[in-house]
Write a sequence for this structure.
């Protein structure tokens, strides 16, 4: 089972099961292999988990849909189906919008490097206890950590050989679950980083007395907003 564990609603299943790579190019061959498995009791009353993995490529969007359909059958007799769908971008600079976004990310990298140097300087001058008392210092530190983590995930993602194997002409199934998870994690980190970047904008609202009213309102309700931000980050 490709050396991976499957987490169900009732328990976690290891890699001691069996798997079959069915053909998708020939319908007759597919039905023959499937009937052969069923006739030889490959799926019987002792089976506790049944998983179907499939990858679907959309050339119009240059995206791959990784579909994992699971049906768990615990000893109690229940049947629990679950389906997870993940999207993978084959090329990060495929369209004009992607190229424009990459240009903006260069600017973001420069700003992040400046914020990092500024934060290190503040940390040396104020000490870590005084540094952590400022909410803006915490927002800047969280933003830098998120962006650095995002690029680490991107580096690992670009070094995955599974995507290049899938792009080849081979008809064999290619396991893309790990790549799909990293891809989803990358975009989630981008979303949370955008949220912290938006919060940092309020730091400059204090320069205007009228706009500063927004910050005063947020300062009063910060206790409730902090809990919402944590929950929002976990949901993403």
């Amino acid at each position: 089972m490709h050396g991976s564990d499957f987490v169900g609603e009732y328990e976690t299943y290891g890699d001691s099961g069996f798997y079959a790579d069915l053909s998708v190019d020939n319908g007759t061959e597919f039905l023959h292999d499937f009937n052969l498995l069923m006739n030889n009791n490959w799926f019987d009353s002792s089976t506790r988990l049944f998983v179907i993995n499939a990858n679907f490529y959309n050339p119009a969007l240059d995206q791959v849909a990784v579909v994992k359909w699971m049906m768990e059958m615990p000893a109690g007799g229940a049947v629990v189906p679950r389906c997870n769908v993940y999207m993978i971008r084959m090329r990060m600079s495929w369209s004009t919008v992607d190229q424009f976004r990459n240009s903006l990310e260069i600017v973001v990298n420069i700003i992040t490097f400046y914020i990092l140097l500024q934060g290190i300087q503040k940390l040396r001058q104020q000490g870590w206890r005084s540094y952590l008392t400022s909410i803006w210092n915490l927002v800047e530190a969280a933003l830098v950590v998120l962006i650095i983590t995002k690029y680490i995930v991107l580096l690992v993602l670009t070094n995955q050989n599974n995507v290049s194997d899938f792009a080849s002409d081979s008809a064999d199934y290619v396991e893309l679950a790990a790549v799909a998870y990293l891809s989803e994690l990358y975009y989630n980190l981008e979303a949370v980083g955008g949220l912290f970047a938006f919060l940092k904008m309020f730091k400059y609202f204090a320069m205007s007395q009228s706009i500063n009213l927004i910050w005063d309102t947020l300062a009063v309700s910060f206790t409730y907003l902090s809990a919402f931000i944590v929950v929002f980050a976990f949901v993403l």
